[in-house]
Amino acid sequence: MTQVDRGPIREIEIPGGTRAWLVTGYDEARQALNDPRLSKTAPGLRVGPLGDDIREATFRHMLAADPPDHTRLRRLVSAAFTARRIEALRPRIQQISDDLLDGLAGEKRADLIDSYAFPLPIQVICELLGLPDEDRDTFRSWTNVIVGGPAYREQLPSAMRDLVAYTRELLAQRRERPGEDLLSGLIAARDDQDRLSEDELTSMVFLLLIAGHETTVNLIGNGAMLLLADRSRWERLETDRDLLPAAIEEFLRYEGPVAYATSRFTTEPMEIGGRPLPAGASVFVGLAEANRDPGRFADAADVDLTREQNPHLGFGHGIHYCLGAPLARLEAQIAFTGLLDRFPQMRLDGTVDELQWRPGMLLRGLFHLPVTL
Fold it and tell me: To which CATH superfamily is domain 2-372 assigned?
């Protein structure tokens, strides 16, 4: 994107020459994320080179909806995505982490993304949804395309169609043979006579697969990078594990897994932070910039593992606040504890400047994180 001006509300030019507004100030971002005049839908909106059938099958989820549809969808999904179900995953997440770390034992070098940060959350979300573990590499190839931005534009329709077809087949299987997994729970979820339609089910699986593992991969990878970029941080956590919850929140603030919230559209002329915006304007909220706003965070440009007041926007804000935040925090806590316990001498294999970030506007994550063990 190209910036046209500066300030907490900036006019920008996105690929294709379209004008939009970027919100980067913390207070302004919270306002935008919680203002009902900013809609997640726009008349005539087209999502890339996709047919109507694929759009309906992948964008009928709660993140792409406004009330009352959002309220209904979140209520139905929350009925299956309970805190009890998430907490019950703790022993299994611990086992997956232990098995992955066992696989690294005896190695001198590793890519922490490929060997740990990716396989941990993808296996968790596969088991949570009841998806075959052997399909995880296929999921990764699809999601890399879906979140990869303009570079993958030509591959996007095929990846989306494959994911939708796969999901519909799984739904048919679960209807015949329901289990204790989240997919069966989503099929069975109802509120009186209301339940999720077929397109809503495929859309929710699409959302949970993307949001349920891509963001946690980045949380673990980005956090490990921050600890190893200045190894005094690693050593401090190693000696004081009570700091880990605050450290995870600081990872979410300083180098969060989501750089920009999904787009919103003004439904009427309005102001954000005193800046007038016309009706029908595209608005992007820069979570990464808002989380480093010096007007809200003391020493915002520094990584502070002891930061006590940390109301970051790493999981969003308002009605679209991430439903999976408790699961992401649980996975991160187990992941970092395991790394610190098993590989106290871990170091970056190279320099921070050599690391490459994945393309795309939405997510913020590394291609690889080479380490010595």
Answer: Cytochrome P450 (1.10.630.10)
pLDDT per residue as tens digits for the range 93-106:
999 999 999 999 98
Determine the length of the chain.
Answer: 373
Nearest to 186, CA basis, from 211, 206, 160: 206
Peptide bond into 49 cis (omega under 30): no
Give 171-228 as a DSSP string: HHHHHHS--SSHHHHHHH-EETTEE--HHHHHHHHHHHHIIIIIHHHHHHHHHHHHHH
pLDDT above 60 for 1: no
Convert the pLDDT of each residue in 289-343 to its tens digit. Answer: 999 999 999 999 999 999 998 999 999 999 999 988 999 999 999 999 999 999 9
Query: How many angstroms separate the CA atoms of 65 and 73, rounded?
Result: 9
Please name the residue that has the structure tokens 């339940």: 195
What span, in angstroms and rounded, lies between the C-alpha atoms of 277 and 11?
10
Collapsing DSSP states into helix, strand and coil, what is residue 340? Answer: helix
Asked if 67 contacts 56 with a C-beta cutoff of 8 angstroms, the reply is no
Helix pair 215-229, 325-342: axis angle to 10 deg: 40
Q: Quick: pLDDT tens for 14-35.
A: 766 778 999 999 999 999 999 9
140 CB-near residues (< 8 Å, 6+ apart): 118, 122
- Dist. CA 63–CA 44, nearest whole Å: 18
Has residue 126 got a pLDDT over 80? yes
Please, are residues 270 and 333 in contact by the beta-carbon 8 Å criterion?
no
Estimate the crossing angle of helix 156-176 against helix 198-209, to 10 degrees.
120
Strand partners, 258: 363
Distance of alpha carbon 106 from alpha carbon 108, whole angstroms: 7
- Strand residues in the chain grouped as ranges (E): 2-3, 9-14, 18-23, 38-39, 109-111, 190-191, 194-195, 264-266, 270-272, 275-277, 282-285, 347-348, 370-372
- One-letter amino acid at 43 equals P
Q: How far is CA 96 from CA 47, 338, 347, in A?
A: 36, 11, 23
- Residue boundaries of the structural domains of the chain: 2-372
